[in-house]
Amino acid sequence: MTGCELGSADLYGIQRTLDDYNRFHDERRSAEWVALFVPDARYIVHDRIYAGHDELWRFLAGRRGGAGKHINGVPLVTSLGEGLCAVEVDYVGYRRAEGAIVVGGTGRYYDRLRRDDDGRWRFVERRIEGVLRTDRDIVEPRTAVFAGRREEG
Fold first, then answer.
1. What tens digit of pLDDT does each residue of 1-32 get?
2. Model confidence over 60-109: pLDDT tens digits?
3. In 3-state terms, what secondary structure has residue 58?
């Protein structure tokens, strides 16, 4: 294996960072979420740029309340050299709206990650491109009402 190839331990570590990003974000584990980024990371969310841990904390302070759920597709990982990689992965974000769980947004994450001295892969940059939905975009799901029948045995 050359210095530019990623081994299975690296791929597992990268996947773990991607999974932890969603888990920590969705569970409001803010300190753990910020720790997934290097201190001078850039976080680009639909054309808004947050640079460094202080601005990541400001981003967290301004987000909406209520738990959501993010689910990733299969990531495409490309080595950029020893301890550095690029990742592209599609996502779907769900949220609660008027008592229902709805798609809040879809898109793609474009990442650069670095393996730090502790072996943890962290975001150097995460850019999010996608479509967000507002409450006005949400169509209430149809509900079916079934008449309760008691069947005799």
1. 445 688 999 999 999 999 999 999 988 899 99
2. 887 765 568 999 999 999 999 989 999 999 999 988 777 788 888 899 99
3. helix
Q: How far is CA 103 from CA 11, 52, 131, in A?
A: 28, 29, 10
Q: Please state, in angstroms and as integers, the Cα–Cα distance from residue 55 to each residue in 16, 34, 37, 118, 145, following that order.
A: 24, 10, 12, 24, 48
Q: Is domain 8-136 in CATH 3.10.450.50, yes or no?
A: yes
Is 111 in contact with 131 (CB distance < 8 Å)? no
Which value, to the nearest 10 degrees, does the dihedral of the CA atoms of residues 108, 70, 34, 131 take? 40
pLDDT the model gives residue 120: 96
Of the candidates 70, 83, 77, 68, which has an alpha carbon nearest to the alpha carbon of residue 11? Answer: 77
Kindly state the tokens that stand for 85: 């990689």
Reference 77, options 43, 49, 109, 37; nearest CA is: 109
